[in-house]
Amino acid sequence: MSTIKANTLLHSDGSTTTQPSIPALDQRMAKAWVNFIGTGTVAIRDSYNVSSVTDNATGDYAINFAVAMANSDYAFAGHASSTTGSGTNSPFVGGVRGSSAYATTNFRFITKYNQDSGLTDVEEISGIVLGG
């Protein structure tokens, strides 16, 4: 592995460049994302900056960040899919639960089917965090 260290980067014509963006610090980049199995024993399929997923109760999860967010003003988007739903009764990631839903160390959310009143575990769940 090689390391490049430089105080100044120049274009080939000698003019200065703008400082390169570090993706992990750039607000336009994902700060965390996860794809996990939400039924039975919860298991992460793949992730970035997610240390674990907590199964709080049926249809109630928290993703735990490996590196905490700088603040709790981030955006979260989620997706759920299942082989047991139908076109008229599809699963979705719903609103957050509790006063600590947007914590710097984790994000808590629910899953349910759009035509059912109760929370339910869902087979495939993914989420992404931007900002923070």
Arithmetic mean pLDDT: 83
Q: How many E strands?
A: 8
Number of domains: 1
Strand coverage percent: 35-45%
Task: Indicate the percent of residues in helices.
Answer: under 10%
Main-sheet strand order equals 2-1-8-5
Summarize the structure.
By secondary structure, this protein is mainly beta. Helices cover 0% and strands 41% of the residues. Strand 3 and strand 4 form a beta hairpin.
Characterize the structure shown:
- This protein is mostly beta strands.
- It has one domain (30-130).
- Helices cover 0% and strands 41% of the residues.
- It contains no helices and 8 strands.
- It has strands at residues 30-37, 43-48, 50-57, 60-65, 75-81, 91-94, 106-113, 124-130.
- A 4-stranded antiparallel β-sheet has the order 2-1-8-5, with no helix packed on it. A 4-stranded antiparallel β-sheet has the order 3-4-7-6, with no helix packed on it.
- The chain starts with 29 loop residues before the first strand and ends with a strand.
- The model has no long low-confidence stretch (mean pLDDT 83).
